[in-house]
Design a protein that fits this description.
The longest helix has 20 residues. The chain is 24% helix and 34% strand. The protein has 177 residues and is an alpha+beta fold. The protein has four helices and 13 strands. The strands form three sheets. It has a six-stranded mixed beta sheet. A five-stranded antiparallel beta sheet has the order 3-5-4-8-7, sandwiched between helices. The protein has a two-stranded antiparallel ribbon with strand order 1-2.
């Protein structure tokens, strides 16, 4: 059963649910973020091109898949001798364009630029080098990620990992990270 609470003091959504609000503005997105306060759920996404706000509240099994992929990335980076900063949760915004909350993201090549920061401001800070989404409850809006120009996006859906690399004309699926 879908249960959404939305009033001047509260924003909540039952686990495993997704709601899409069409014909929305950046101001509507910011208002919902403020209603959610410091909670991490429901996750909020905004895409100016589609004028949609998506709310998603994952199931507990969603987190298990995220942890597995995050651990895999950390193992690979350790083997390569690379340092990183991992953010989970994080709200990434390009004001007026897009706002999204990847399941987890990594700063690798751009790590030095964000060291010591409590908040990331994409108007001055670089985007993360890698964002990871697990499509267990909802489907990832790859177009919204294009607006933020995140160099690499991993989407895990139906026991399959898809790797997308950002190019000038958008994301292209790749066999390699």
């Amino acid at each position: 059963m879908l249960l959404i609470t939305l009033n001047e003091n509260t924003l909540s959504l039952s686990p495993g649910s997704q709601v899409i609000f069409p014909h929305q503005t950046w101001e509507d997105y910011e208002r919902l973020l403020s209603l959610r306060l410091q909670k991490t759920y429901p996750k909020l996404y905004f895409n100016r091109k589609t004028q949609e706000i998506r709310l998603m509240s994952p199931l507990p099994s969603h987190g298990k898949r995220i942890n597995l992929l995050s651990d895999l990335v950390k193992i690979i980076l350790r083997r390569q001798g690379k340092d990183w900063e991992c953010f989970d949760p994080i709200t990434l915004k390009m004001p007026g364009e897009a706002g999204l909350e990847p399941d987890t993201c990594f700063y690798i090549d751009n790590r030095q630029a964000i060291l010591g920061k409590e908040r990331i401001d994409l108007t001055v800070d670089p985007p993360p080098d890698l964002a990871i989404e697990v499509d267990f409850t909802s489907l990832t809006d790859v177009e919204a990620y294009q607006l933020l120009k995140i160099p690499e996006l991993w989407v895990y859906r139906r026991e399959e990992l898809k790797i997308y690399l950002f190019r000038e004309d958008g994301y292209q699926e790749s066999e390699n990270s």
